[in-house]
Design goal:
Elements (H helix, E strand, L loop, with lengths): L2 H22 L10 H5 L3 H8 L4 H12 L4 E3 L2 E2 L1
Antiparallel strand pairs: 1-2
């Protein structure tokens, strides 16, 4: 295996372990919120760029769905 292949494999494995940790083992996992927001920091970018929604509107919607305290990013509670 080449160094490039080993590096790519290591990068993918690290991302997978980080994703699984954030969803299943992170101390903030007990708070409600979208699973995609718990898994990755790219969720906010996806909502704003791909879906084209205003972040303020998304937060208002999440407050209506989950109440006053919810997890909307890997390490943020609102």
């Amino acid at each position: 295996m080449s160094f490039l292949g080993a590096g790519i494999l290591l990068w993918v494995a690290t991302g997978a372990v980080r994703l699984l940790y954030n969803v299943f083992l992170h101390p903030l996992r007990k708070f409600p919120g979208p699973v995609a927001a718990r898994a990755s920091g790219w969720w906010k970018t996806w909502v704003e760029v791909v879906r084209g929604e205003s972040w303020v509107d998304v937060l208002v919607e999440l407050h209506g769905k989950y109440g006053m305290c919810f997890q909307f990013y890997r390490w943020y509670l609102c």
